[in-house]
Amino acid sequence: MSESAERIYALLVDVNPVPDIEDLQTALAETPHLYVIDTRRNDMQTQTPPRTPASTPPRRRRLWIPALAGAAVVVATVIVSVFAFGGNDSASAPVAQGDGPDLIKVVEDMYADGTVEGTLRYVAEDASSAVITQIFGRPGTYAIDDPRELLSVTFALNAEAEVTECTLFENETAVRCTARHRDDFHGPAGLEFEVEETFRFDEAGRIMDVSALVDPRIYQAMDRAFGSWLQAEHPEIHAETSDSFGLIFTEEAIAAFLPFVEDFVAQSPDYPVTE
After folding, report:
1. Do 217 and 186 meet the contact criterion of CB atoms below 8 Å apart?
2. What was the pLDDT predicted at 10?
3. Backbone phi, then psi, for 58, in 5-degree steps?
4. Are 34 and 28 a contacting pair, CB within 8 Å?
5. What is the pLDDT of residues 77-110, one digit of tens each?
6. Helix, strand and coil percent figures for the chain, each rounded to 5
């Protein structure tokens, strides 16, 4: 160490001497009040206070478990409702539950059935008898209240409908179809029409109402003309199949009418009509 450095160190020791540890303890022992202060300082608690653990938030319930259970109940209820629903008779019909494509199938299957009881399975119980004639494109043609009798007459005429197109509308709760209607009595006279029909359904998916854009007077005019001709040409058959209001359409009467329809058309100035 250089002379200047030694001199600077000596001056520092004079100003702030560092005592020997043994001398310091002896001095403290001779001065009790300082010893007590030092002892308390050395005995000071320095331990870290225990931390209070943060409260753990309660776990949230998994809602998907009861949700799945609820969904299963809903599905089961729908299935039970579908299979528990009965038709107009003991046989249950394939009905729609607000599903559009099924509603279209109801119309197509109804036309394809071709039987009295089968057709009635697709028609609501409280639907009017006029719905039956509307289904086959002839609204209000026959004054028959009993649906089964009305269908029997319709099928005795060999009435049929060729459905070419069906679409859904009114939020898929109704069906509009284009269909070509004909039967063996009015057909030879040219009364074969392509009509637009609108079907509406009850909550069970059965046909409740039908709107057919055909004027029933078209058919009624032909019925009267045929009745007048039949009275003139075959009065005995006319007497058995008519009353004061005109021809009576029953299965037996229709069977008597059909063999003479072509003869009537052949001599008529008004038939066959052309579209």
Report:
1. no
2. 60
3. -60, 145
4. yes
5. 333 333 232 334 434 444 444 444 489 999 999 9
6. 50, 15, 35
Q: What 3-state DSSP class applies to 175?
A: strand
C-alpha span between 175 and 166 (Å, rounded)? 7
Q: What's the rounded Cα separation, in Å, for the pair 275 and 273?
A: 7
pLDDT of residue 231: 97
Q: Residue 237 carries which side chain, given as an amino acid letter?
A: I
Q: Binning pLDDT at 50, 70 and 90, where does residue 221 land?
A: very high
Residues sharing a CB contact under 8 Å with residue 157, sequence separation 6 or more, in sequence order: 183, 184, 185, 186, 254
Do 256 and 241 form a contact (C-beta atoms < 8 A)? Answer: yes
Q: Which amino acid is at 252?
A: E
- Beta strand spans in 127-227 (E): 160-169, 174-182, 193-201, 207-212
Separation of alpha carbons 93 and 89, rounded Å: 9
CA geometry: angle 212, 218, 221, nearest 5 deg? 145
From CA 103, how far away is CA 107, in angstroms rounded? 7
Reading the block at residue 208, the tokens are 């409740």
Phi-psi region of 242 (alpha: psi -120 to 50; beta: other; left: phi over 0): beta
In degrees, rounded to 5, the angle at the alpha carbon of residue 265 between the alpha carbons of residues 261 and 268 is 135
Give the model confidence (pLDDT) of 106-149 as tens digits: 999 999 998 999 999 999 988 877 788 778 766 556 777 788 88
- The beta strand positions in the chain, using DSSP E, are 160-169, 174-182, 193-201, 207-212, 242-243, 246-247
